[in-house]
Amino acid sequence: MRTVLPRAALTTLAVATALAAIPGVALAAAPATPTRTAVTSDAGPAVFVQTNALTGNTILAYHRADDGALTPVGEYQTGGLGGVAVNAPLDSLASQGSLTYDPAHRLLFAVNAGSNSVTVFAVHGAQLLREQVVSSRGQFPVSISVHGGLLAVLNAGGSGSVAAYAIVGDRLAALPWAHRSLGLANTTPPLFITAPAEVGFSPSGHDLVVTTKANGSIDVIPVHAGGAFGPTSVTTSAGAVPFSFTFDRFAHLVVTEAGTSTVTTYALSWDGALTPLTVSVGDGGKALCWTVNARGLVIGANAGSATLSSYRTASTGGLTLVQPVATATGAGPIDMATAAHGHLLYVQDSVAGEVQGFWVHADGTLTLATTLTGLPAFNGAGMEGIAAS
Fold this sequence. Notes:
Helix content: under 10%
Structural class: mainly beta
Distance between the termini: 41 Å
Oligomer: single chain
Number of helices: 1
């Protein structure tokens, strides 16, 4: 008989019971980098960049100054391998959210696409301690989302899958009742255009959303007590190649459509159904793939035209392009992260091998704050994943 526990009841005892049902998954910590004695007191803010190196994935850590400037602090081994999707044009993982910071637990989570695992780091300012490496319970993990005491990982290889874990202290515990195949027919590594792009919790935490690019679908998986998954609801995307998404301040789902460089907003109902509200509003760029919330705005990155754009949403689901592709970035802008309560935006420029920081203004305009060069540039493979504390 399956025991389903309330989220609040995911105690250490319950976690141990869950782990006993999954051979090979344990709470044992992997070797930490640096050692615990090397960690100093550092409460300052930081930005983290995932190198996705195929021979050994690492995280580059930077201290963030008040003016947005970044200072290198260290490089930390994840204990896994990076990966690259087949025919990836400029982003190795073809996804959003491969590196995720959880401020509630002060943990950083990284995917290791080449070794089918997830790494857990404890965050001490801009210093990291590697606490654990666990199986992603699938092939080619590309995206992570956290809500409360739950973490979900999206596996893009093979049939594709979503798996959930309980966060207990500084560890993850796999939940045997929280695993769902997406029914795809990908290879491993997957073809970049047919792979799912992102997994994310709804603001309430009661649903998980998954976008699948060429399949043109948006899947909604209900999350019940104890993290158990309900039946999947599948909606056909309003535009071609749904890629990344975010939820705006009104809890509307905002999805990019890379095929047409457009954005659509949806209302998410209690049963997982999605209703389009404002459909396929374009920004004039090319390959609009990545999105992030900042100061009540939705900011998108156009990988094909090396530009950023800003949208404003309304309580009715309305969507207005307030700043078209006027802000230039380095070549290949992909994943993004916000800091300083949304006033700073950091953009990963994969082809240029750099990270740029921008000040976000209330009118949707952006001004350059800093440029960090010398990062692993895309040349068949390259960095992907950025997070900020």
